[in-house]
Design goal:
The chain has helices spanning about 15-25, 75-90, 175-185, 235-245, 250-260, 265-280; strands at about 1-5, 30-35, 45-50, 50-60, 95-100, 110, 140-145, 155-160, 165-170, 195-200, 205. By secondary structure, the chain is of the alpha+beta class. β5 (about 95-100) and β6 form a beta hairpin.
Amino acid sequence: MTAVPPTAGAHEPGLDAGAALEVLARGELEIRGRLVDASNATLLAAVELEGVEALCVYKPVAGERPLWDFPGRTLANREVSMYLLAAAAGWGLVPPTTLRTDGPFGPGSVQWWISGPGEPGDPEAHDESGVPLAEPGAGVVDVVPPAEVPQGWLHVVEAVGWDGERVALAHADDPSLRRMAVLDAVANNADRKGGHILRAADGEVFGVDHGLTFNEDDKLRTVLWGWAGEPLTDEAVEILGRLAADLEGDGPLRRALLDLLDRREVQRTLHRVRMLLRSGRHPRPGGGRPSIPWPAF
């Protein structure tokens, strides 16, 4: 049996994102444990197909906690929708994700596990069972004393920490984070915590935990406000133009999202893309609603 590193997908030789999706969609799932810090049922599983074995995150629909502002039993679909959006953008910022109707606990999303860059045998890079862990915040988002914000980082907000001391939320001026901020604005991500940003063993930055996305109402809550009001990059404008075309008429992204989301949610996604193109700038925090998720990690 070939053991494929959990960061495989679009990054490991011989296994591209399409092959990773095939493993996730058809492989045999075996539950290994539960991620207890998650709000909804989030299970670590091994997946194996034709000698290829990897780890994945399985989120059964049956374990979704009801929410007053999101339709019930739709979070798994939103996880997959975010992957499709990121794939259409060509930025590869979301690990391969798909739906399974035959999971051990029923239908749910499955997503390629992202392991961190820690050395083998490093106890801080693995949990007690030896599962490789990626560092929350990926070394590019942090909450630190104001005087300790790394040079060149973008300041988001200052607040009072648990111990009463002043702290600052800040993030790196990083191209991958900036692209992620654009995708979050398109998807209306209501929960971009620092802990939902991970760095894989190969150095790539990924966003995970996208159940609270694509709502019709404006709900953008993120730690990535460092570029608020700044002009979009030329690259972002080009990508947004392509996404707009893919979301119009019979575009491929529109067709894929209509299988997962309400038609009005898809139409609002196109509306957000058009608004970004019209303004040419990163959005600013909205008034009258929280703009930063809590806790920030």
